[in-house]
């Protein structure tokens, strides 16, 4: 490229700093998210890698049950293990979930981090670096615990303090803090209470099994030791320590890569939205510089040179934006981690990792997107005829909208048809059809939006702008003056709000579905619920049976077994269905006793089961229990595929992993429900974590979980909305510059500054509401389509969050005004003399 | 949109008692820049513009003729001196009051027409009235539209009109509100001679038939010949004045001003 052209590009960038800043900002926001997600996950990965290298440090061989969820390693095998030649130390893993009471007598929240009780390992038996006691002494007798530093600090407990620990399988235990220790895995909200060996075994094992046993060798290689141990214990799974560490690492990595993809998806959305803004900005810049470009052509610059000078500008903007974006990404990752730590999600802390890969990807993506976005405008710039420099007004009307509108209309018909067809089916195929339809409709809107903007903005204008008289009319006509620009500006908001609406429909439908499930399926008057990590502690059901007015308290368990060599999940009840759950019995009896099994109509049909069919359940240890089908009920999401009595559950589930999902409570007829509630709360008080809920509260707590999930998604999508707002600001600011003369004339013939501002506000509102309306419409349609295909997954009620839809449309109007604040102020400052000043 | 009640009594939308002078400049100075680069665009200019008269301001490029008009019309502020429109002193007005004065008491015709491209001819014509929230006097508007030959063009957009037609629309816009005074900034600068003739005839008729006051800036002796009076500026001073001019007498005076680029292409002065 010749240097004079480069000079023109550079001077041009320097001369329009505000424009440059806005364009760069849109690149920054997109790349920041890409860089931020990489930095965040790289950092986590690095820290986790270190952590697990530490955690399984010194482990040469790990012995575990053949399958996950099996009883594990029988303690009776330990002597055999110790007898293997070359074994230095044998450490059985004894741990389980607990709830620790803080100094304030309230359960200590660990956030997402583990809260576990475990067995104290004396330093001489430790496989890796032993935990260091920083205060007090290790637990030496039952009733003593050592706490990790982080937990002790958060709980406000010191050596010698007395408190309580809830173990779901054993109840509440009084303990004294004997010591405080330091551990490398002390992260976020982690709680690790060490008990002495005997008590740990009593609390966290069934007395005869442990999950796994770690072994350290001496004077022998890992693989050699593994072979020797495997020979001694042929019925158990034996891995080398390296293998264990690899497995753990792989597990963490796959969890992290999901997170990475998740964050990158939002980065991609941000970039996509940013693309439209960059494209729009360059289009407008080229349009405004037509005379200048034509002048360059007239004095001999070639088409190529003119085109290149625009691309060069894009390149500089892209580089600058990406570089800033990477810096912002590091900040984003830092903020994200700080926020998650604030919630005690249990993330370990470590230095932020900025890998070369992150820098390269962010730079490439940022520069490519910018240059590609500027390519079309650059081509247009190259086509400027030299005579345009001489003409007073050179308006590039552009190509007719007819072709693109026609293609858009065809895409709309195809997309609409696919959406309708897909929504009639269920499952993956149908969802794919809906997805294709959605993609086609997005393309359709992208193509047809300019043609669509005139009638739609016209109609919106009739509502929003009419009350503002001539100012409103000016705003309305300005909003559709350049339909392409209006459409591209609005499209950023369309994409953002489309995604928000899809998620909104999902959330509302999920909540509605849960509500209807509870309304139609649950008859219980009260429900006992516990934390997700442990469920309701055992014994709570027995405790509430004693409460006056309680007719029945039924425990619900999840059952996992193999039937016909296939993993199957069912439900187990400690009592009878009647009174607590609604169901429709189609055949046989609903009595749950002995080895009875109730199955749903669909399961019965699929398996070919009939009343009296024997069904063999195989548990994880390979033990078998034979049940008989005694009843068939109409399909119900709540009841699931099949049900067995508690006795069967206990036979197929190792004691250490038994858990209670919830306890359903039926009141005696005529019982005083309000009074009963207090009694129930009192009866379950000693279980610390048990909550008493009526049906409405139970629905509410389910809805709350969905809301939390939605909040995270909305938070991430907010970025796309922010970029869309920047796009509107950008378009308006450039439009104001473009219309300087016209605004000057309006000022000259007597338009007051507030009127000028109001015109810009209204124009902005019209563009924003247009974009939002299209986005919400698409989003609701897509959400409806997708949810329809999920009827089998429990989303059998489709709900549109109308309140949210209205809020989004009103919000977009507010956004419109906010985006217009600065451009409007600029416009209002236009001097009347601008009407006369040369272009 | 006239809800912004005006605080000052000085500016009234009602037509003040007729005085012989529609606009008056007194000892007007206007300087641009400072120090060595300081330019004195107006240097102690005093002039009266009589009601019901058509005045042309002429002068070579850089003579200050456009600056004078901008100051008179409230588009620009003078460095010192006073400007009166009717009985109103402009130099003490706030931006809001000045805007209202332009809106209600002044009409403009620009060189580049300056119509809003998205509005129809009629909408452009009534724009200042609409902005003010006033209704046009229907018989007056009808009269103006008929006289300007625009009745069959009212639904056209500016892009569908010729230059001459656009400038006629601009004239109609200036006349529609029955202002006290109409200013024209090189109103024929962008027109061919036939269209120029039409527009100047309209401005002449505005004075003769509608009793308006018109002040234009021009460099075209033929345009100036439509005026009742020509004021000549050079180097920020009023240097000469001519009554009942013809194109020849104007050209003659211009030559005597002894400036090379008398017929400069630059319309900005």
Rg of chain B, Cα atoms, Å: 18 Å
The run of helices and strands of chain B is EEEHEEHEHHHEHEHEEH
Strand ordering within the main sheet of chain B? 6-7-8-3-9-10
Structural class of chain B: alpha/beta
Please report the two chains with the greatest interface, counting residues with C-beta closer than 8 angstroms to the partner's C-beta. Answer: A-B, 28 and 35 residues
**Main sheet of chain A, how many strands, which sense, barrel?**
10 strands, mixed
Instruction: State the low-pLDDT regions of chain A, or none.
Output: none
How is the quaternary structure best described? heterodimer
Q: What is the CA–CA distance across the termini of chain A?
A: 29 Å
Write the topology of this structure.
The complex is a heterodimer of chains A (839) and B (269).
Chain A: H1 3-15, H2 17-55, E1 61-64, E2 73-74, H3 78-83, E3 87-92, E4 95-97, E5 99-100, E6 115-119, E7 132-136, E8 144-148, H4 149-155, E9 162-167, E10 171-182, E11 191-195, H5 197-204, E12 209-210, E13 212-217, H6 222-232, E14 237-240, H7 241-288, H8 290-298, H9 303-342, H10 356-382, H11 402-424, H12 428-464, H13 469-479, H14 483-521, E15 526-529, H15 540-545, E16 550-563, E17 566-573, E18 585-588, E19 596-600, H16 601-607, E20 614-618, E21 624-633, E22 642-645, H17 646-652, E23 662-667, H18 673-684, E24 691-694, H19 695-738, H20 740-748, H21 753-788, H22 802-828
Parallel strand pairs in A: 6-11, 8-10, 17-22, 19-21
Antiparallel strand pairs in A: 1-13, 1-14, 2-12, 3-13, 4-6, 5-9, 7-10, 8-11, 9-10, 15-23, 15-24, 16-17, 16-23, 18-21, 19-22, 20-21
Chain B: E1 21-32, E2 39-50, E3 54-58, H1 65-72, E4 80-85, E5 88-89, H2 95-105, E6 106-109, H3 121-132, H4 138-147, H5 163-176, E7 181-185, H6 193-208, E8 214-217, H7 221-224, E9 229-234, E10 237-243, H8 247-256
Parallel strand pairs in B: 3-8, 3-9, 6-7, 7-8
Antiparallel strand pairs in B: 1-2, 1-4, 4-5, 9-10
Helix pairs in contact in B: 3-5, 5-6
């Amino acid at each position: 490229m010749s240097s004079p052209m480069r000079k023109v590009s550079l001077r041009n960038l320097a001369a329009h700093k505000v424009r440059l800043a806005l364009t760069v900002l849109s690149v920054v926001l997109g790349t920041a998210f890409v860089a931020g997600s990489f930095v965040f996950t790289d950092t986590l990965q690095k820290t986790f890698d270190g952590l697990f290298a530490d955690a399984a440090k010194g482990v040469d061989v790990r012995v575990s049950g053949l399958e996950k969820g099996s009883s594990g390693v029988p303690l009776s095998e330990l002597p055999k293990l110790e007898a293997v030649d070359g074994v230095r130390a044998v450490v059985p893993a004894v741990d389980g979930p607990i709830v620790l009471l803080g100094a304030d007598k309230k359960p200590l929240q660990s956030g997402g981090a583990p809260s576990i009780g475990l067995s104290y390992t004396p330093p001489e038996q430790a496989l890796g670096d032993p935990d260091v006691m920083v205060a007090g002494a290790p637990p030496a007798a039952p009733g003593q615990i050592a706490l990790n530093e982080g937990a002790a600090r958060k709980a406000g407990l010191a050596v010698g303090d007395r408190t309580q620990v809830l173990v779901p399988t054993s109840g509440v235990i009084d303990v004294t803090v004997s010591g405080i220790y330091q551990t490398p895995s002390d992260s976020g909200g982690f709680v690790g209470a060490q008990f002495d060996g005997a008590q740990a075994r009593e609390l966290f094992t069934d007395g005869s099994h442990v999950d796994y046993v770690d072994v350290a060798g001496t004077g022998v290689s890992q693989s050699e030791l593994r072979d020797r141990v495997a020979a001694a214990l042929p019925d158990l799974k034996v891995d080398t320590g390296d293998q264990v560490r690899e497995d753990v690492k792989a597990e963490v990595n796959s969890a992290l890569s999901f997170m990475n993809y998740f964050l990158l998806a939002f980065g991609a959305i941000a970039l996509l939205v940013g693309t439209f803004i960059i494209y729009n900005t360059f289009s407008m810049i080229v349009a405004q510089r037509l005379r200048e470009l034509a002048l360059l052509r007239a004095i001999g610059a070639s088409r190529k040179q003119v085109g290149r000078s625009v691309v060069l500008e894009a390149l500089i903007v892209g580089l600058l934006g990406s570089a800033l974006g990477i810096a912002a990404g590091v900040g984003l990752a830092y903020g994200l981690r700080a926020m998650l730590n604030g919630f005690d999600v249990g993330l370990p802390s470590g230095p932020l990792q900025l890998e070369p890969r992150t820098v390269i990807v962010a730079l490439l993506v940022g520069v490519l997107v910018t240059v590609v976005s500027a390519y079309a405008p650059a081509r247009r710039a190259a086509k400027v005829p030299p005579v345009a420099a001489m003409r007073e007004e050179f308006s590039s009307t552009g190509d007719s909208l007819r072709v693109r509108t026609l293609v858009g209309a065809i895409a709309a018909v195809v997309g609409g048809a696919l959406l309708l067809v897909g929504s009639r089916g269920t499952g993956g195929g149908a969802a794919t059809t809906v997805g294709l339809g959605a993609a086609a409709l997005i393309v359709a809107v992208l193509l047809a939006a300019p043609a669509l903007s005139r009638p739609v903005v016209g109609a919106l204008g009739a509502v929003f702008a009419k009350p503002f008289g001539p100012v409103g009319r000016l705003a309305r006509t300005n909003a559709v003056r350049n339909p392409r620009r209006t459409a591209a500006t609005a499209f950023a908001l369309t994409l953002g709000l489309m995604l928000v609406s899809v998620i909104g429909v999902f959330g509302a439908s999920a909540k509605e579905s849960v509500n209807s499930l509870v309304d139609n399926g649950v008859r219980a008057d009260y429900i006992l619920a516990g934390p997700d990590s442990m469920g309701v502690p055992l014994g709570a059901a027995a405790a509430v049976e004693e409460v006056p007015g309680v007719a029945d308290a039924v425990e619900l368990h999840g059952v996992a077994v193999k039937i016909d060599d296939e993993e199957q999940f069912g439900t187990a009840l400690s009592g009878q269905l009647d009174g607590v759950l609604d169901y429709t019995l189609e055949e046989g009896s609903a009595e749950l006793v002995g080895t009875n099994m109730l199955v749903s109509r669909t399961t019965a049909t699929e398996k070919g089961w009939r009343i009296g069919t024997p069904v063999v359940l195989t548990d994880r240890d390979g033990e078998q229990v034979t049940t008989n089908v005694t009843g068939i009920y109409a399909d119900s999401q709540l009841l699931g595929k099949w049900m067995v009595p508690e006795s069967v559950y206990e036979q197929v589930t190792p004691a250490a992993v038994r858990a209670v999902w919830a306890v359903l409570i039926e009141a005696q007829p005529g019982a005083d429900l309000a009074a009963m509630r207090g009694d129930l709360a009192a009866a379950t008080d000693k279980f610390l974590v048990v909550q008493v809920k009526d049906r409405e509260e139970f629905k509410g707590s389910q809805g709350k979980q969905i809301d939390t999930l939605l909040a995270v998604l909305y938070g991430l999508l907010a970025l796309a909305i922010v970029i869309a707002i920047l796009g509107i600001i950008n378009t308006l600011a450039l439009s104001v510059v473009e219309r300087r003369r016209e605004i000057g004339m309006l000022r000259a013939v007597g338009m007051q500054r507030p009127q000028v501002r109001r015109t810009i506000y209204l124009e902005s509102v019209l563009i924003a509401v247009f974009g939002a309306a299209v986005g919400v419409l698409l989003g609701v349609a897509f959400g409806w389509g997708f949810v329809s295909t999920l009827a089998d997954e429990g989303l059998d009620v489709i709900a549109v969050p109308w309140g949210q839809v209205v809020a989004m449309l009103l919000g977009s109007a507010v956004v419109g005004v906010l985006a217009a604040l600065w451009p409007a102020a600029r416009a209002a400052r236009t001097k009347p003399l601008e009407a006369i000043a040369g272009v | 949109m006239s809800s912004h009640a005006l605080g000052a009594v000085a500016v009234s939308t009602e037509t003040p008692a007729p005085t012989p002078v529609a606009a008056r400049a007194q000892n007007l100075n206007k300087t641009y820049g400072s120090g060595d680069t300081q330019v004195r665009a107006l240097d102690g200019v005093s002039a009266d513009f009589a009601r019901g008269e058509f005045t042309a301001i002429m002068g070579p490029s850089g003579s200050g003729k456009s600056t004078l008009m901008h100051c008179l019309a409230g588009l620009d502020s003078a460095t010192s001196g006073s400007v009166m429109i009717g009985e109103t002193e402009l130099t003490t007005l706030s931006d809001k009051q000045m805007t209202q004065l332009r809106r209600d008491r002044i009409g403009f015709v620009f060189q580049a027409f300056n119509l809003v491209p998205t509005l129809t001819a009629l909408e452009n014509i009534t724009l200042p009235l609409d902005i003010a929230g006033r209704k046009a006097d229907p018989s007056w508007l009808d009269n103006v539209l008929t006289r300007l030959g625009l009745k069959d063009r009212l639904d056209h957009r500016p892009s569908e009109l010729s230059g001459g037609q656009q400038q006629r629309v601009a004239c109609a816009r200036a006349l529609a509100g029955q202002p006290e005074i109409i200013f024209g900034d090189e109103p024929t600068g962008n027109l061919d001679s036939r269209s120029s003739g039409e527009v100047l005839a309209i401005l002449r008729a505005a004075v003769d038939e509608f009793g308006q006051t018109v002040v234009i800036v021009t460099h075209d002796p033929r345009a100036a010949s439509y005026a009742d009076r020509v004021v000549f500026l050079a180097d920020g001073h009023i240097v000469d004045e001519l009554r009942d001019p013809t194109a020849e007498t104007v050209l003659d005076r211009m030559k005597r001003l002894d400036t090379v680029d008398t017929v400069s292409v630059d319309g900005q002065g």
